[in-house]
Amino acid sequence: MNSSKTISKTDKDQLIRSLRTHRVNTLTELRRIEKIFAYLDQSEVLEPMTSAWAHYVNSNNLLSELRGLTRNYPFSSECLDEAKWKVIEDPASTRSWNYCWLVLVKIQNEQLITKHARSQAALPKQWGGRNATSAGINQLADAFTAEWTWALGQMLRHWESPPTTTGY
């Protein structure tokens, strides 16, 4: 594939096929394709790109990548699930074709990390049968928050500007 702002029909068709067959399943690769498609006719590439992002999020690839970045305090699947539901319920979610970006921004904007870090830190399984103190829960919640927030930032840095139809 050439590096200019145009690609051959064969290359475009190959990229679309790779999206539809889910051969591309990392944020970095999906963003690479999304950047290439930014210069093409949206009517041809919007559906496969939208479907690929939805598959990436719903097949737990996003959660796996987040957990790869949060080895000390694995990212909360409950936090991610809540963000997904909030995006689905949000009428403004139609401003982007990128479900992954919408979910990550929802986590950030609605401060879901803080909420889920606190609930995760208070779980008895975190304390191995011991009674948790308020100070201990706060300290653990702070550790969850710091690592999860860093990972969220690492994921969001893949977008120089929001992938939206409205520019915000």
How would you sum up this structure, described in words?
It is elongated, with a radius of gyration of 18 Å. It has helices at residues 9-20, 27-37, 42-58, 61-69, 77-89, 99-109, 112-121, 134-156. With 168 residues, it is an all-alpha fold. Helix content is 63%, strand content 0%.
Characterize the biggest β-sheet. Answer: none
Topology pattern, helix = H, strand = E: HHHHHHHH
How far apart the termini lie comes to 31 Å
Structural class: mainly alpha
What's the β-strand tally? 0
Which regions are unreliable across 5 or more consecutive residues at pLDDT < 50?
Answer: none
Shape: elongated
Question: Number of helical runs?
Answer: 8
What is the percentage of strand-forming residues? under 5%
Q: Note the quaternary state here.
A: single chain
Rg measurement, Å: 18 Å
Helical fraction: 55-70%
